[in-house]
Amino acid sequence: MTMTTTSEADPSRTDVESSEQDATTREQVLHLIVSRGPIAAGDLAAALNLTAPAIRRHLTALESDGHIVARQAPGAAKRGRGRPARFYVATERAHESLPSAYADLAIRALAHLAEVAGDGALADFARTRSETLASRYAAGIDAAGTDPAARAQVLAHLLAEDGYEATTRPVPGTRMLQLCQGHCPVVDVAAAFPQLCEAETQVFSRLLGVHVQRLATLATGAHACTTNVPTGRAPNTCPSAGTPTTTTPFSTSPTPVEGPR
């Protein structure tokens, strides 16, 4: 008696399983681009253990869907022969597909607060929100010691757990690193009320024990919120949160370097 396997009996089931696996992998690719972009195809393939053809297939699909765009590395045209390296970042459409915090209702509520109680009340709200975040993060960050780089790594980890897709990256040739937030759950609200971003930056300074500088925000159209953190370390010795990747930052402000709230 000849036995048949499930896939031989029902080939469509194998097709469905393959399609579901593709969708899961594609979500992982998008997640990495959101959190680590700008990032090259080779780094994505290495992080997910994919072949070059496989990663190209997923990148092509994500580009076709409007979830990512490719950018040419600065100075690539001067490299001579060969195809210029391409680095991928998430689009606004990709961010819209990620969880948001009831943006429309929040915007209406804050607009009403400002109208009824004035801008001072709105600033107080922004400070209170950031203070709540600080109180939740303080113990974990303090446990990292006094090194700003180590404290920034913990802050990035805690922000990532709250949906901000945060990482830290060294700024080559400087005594700084960048805290990069690839997603913001309240980006639409922050675009309407920049006081939220300002209060968050002030809290980052206090939590890290150094004066930080916000370079760019998702709320103003950048592909990530980027904050410069002075570390006092020698150049090129700052650790990076998460799995290291070889990326070339793209600036969205006059500051020379920007990575990817």
From the 3D structure, determine the CATH topology of the largest domain. Muramoyl-pentapeptide Carboxypeptidase, domain 2
Distance between the termini: 62 Å
The outline comes out as globular
- Per CATH, the class of the largest domain reads Alpha Beta
In the residues, how many domains can be counted? 2
**Strand line-up in the sheet with most strands:** 4-5-7-6
Helix/strand order: HHEHHEEHHHHEEHHEE
Contiguous low-pLDDT stretches (5 residues minimum) are 1-9, 11-17, 234-261
Classify the beta-strand content into a percent band: 5-15%
How helix-rich are the residues, as a percent range? 40-55%
- Return the average pLDDT rounded to an integer: 77
How would a textbook summarize the main sheet? 4 strands, antiparallel
The CATH architecture of the largest domain comes to: 2-Layer Sandwich
Instruction: Provide the structure class.
Output: alpha+beta
| Number of continuous helical runs | 10
The Rg value, from CA coordinates, equals: 21 Å
What's the count of strands? 7
